[in-house]
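Lecture 7 notes: from sequence to structure.
We start with the chain below.
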Amino acid sequence: MTSIILLSVFGIVNLFLGFLRSNKVLLPGAMLLLLAVFGANYADWNSEPASYFNHMLVVDHYTVAFTGIVLLTAIVLLPFSRSYVTSGEPNLAEYYALLLFSLVGAIMMVGYDHLLMLFVGIEILSISMYVLAGSSKRDSRSNEAALKYFLMGAFATGILLFGVALLYGATGTFALSQLAAAVAAPTNASLQPMLYIGILLMIIGIGFKVSAAPFHFWTPDVYEGTPTFFTAFMSTVVKTAGFAAFLKLLAVALPAAQGFWMPTIQAMCALTLLLGNVGAAVQTSPKRMLAYSSVSHAGYLLIGLVASKGIILGTNGTTSEAASAIFFYSLAYSIATVAAFGVLKLVNDHRQNDSYAGLNGLGRTNPLLAFVMTVAMLSLAGIPLTGGFFGKFFLLAAAVGQGYIGLVVFAVIMSMVGLYYYLRPLIAMYLRPADDNATPVPVDGIQSATLVVLALLTIVLGIAPSFMSGLL
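Predicted structure tokens for the same chain:
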């Protein structure tokens, strides 16, 4: 709760900082504010679970852990907005404020204990993303991305809200615990069709938010058209919050309806893995490849939902193996994705080339950028000694423990397909020569330090996964 209050207040304060003649104070100010919020969130770790807004929002270990991921992601992403500062972007204060407000929505999605709080969190996060997707007003691709994202997101939100209404009509409650009891002991069997349709519509609505197939069709175009900095935020924070909300909905509110939603999630998982990996393999742009890669990673996270069993509780309860696996995977994926998008942004800003050719010779001109990009790609591919390897291992192990062998085998095969497109940036950086007039990509000290930290975190998670795997 403290994090929500601080982010809301800091977001408003940040808007007033936009009246300053110089925007140079905005970047360090936003980073300090986020560090303060991260510290406040950490302080909640040792506190007893607490409910707010008439038990609509709960702050427990689950909430604090996933909130930590989204806050850490925002902190390490901010240094790559430096180009907006140096170019004198007139709307920078508004951009930072929208990012802070979107984090409020993400935290609500993580900590909700009431379906209306989930809806409010999704709307706060989504509306901020709609605006930021079209932040490059003179770029037609950015305008197209914002329009597509807004229109499709509005339809998905309507579907989600219709599902919430049907769930309430079938159970008479929005609260997760009461919803779980009502689903487990239905008082009127004639309402079951309404319940199942409501569950299906909610799966569709949240599936859109996390880029799960067949509701992923907006992802490549929106990711490609959105400015790279905001694309990185969208592909990490939104996905982490979405899956934390998805897991809580299925494992806390609807475990008794598992016989209905489990086949649906399994089908979505297999389709997402297939379309995400095959789609990424045929792309000619690293940014669009990462968009389809984001879809494929949604498929791996869906494996965690398939493997989820039991009810997720707070400090004094139990947490399923699948929940811990989703937490670790979200952390490893977010770190590697921010590193990859950070390198792409720096390279594209300098070379003005968003194809694989833009990475040619980067190993010679900028060894640090090439090394960080290599670590990020290897982690996303699930290569050992990186966090991504253990992220996939924990998810697949949880699925094997529940008997989903066929799905695990299919996921392993799709991981092998992923090796192809994740190695393409490495080939461009190290095996292809740069243009004759290519110069080193300028990288300032803060950006270099951030990239080094991201690479080290990825390697640490791959060498000592127990450092974070047992946190949740």
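Points to note: DSSP finds 20 helices and two strands in the chain. The chain has one domain: 2-469.
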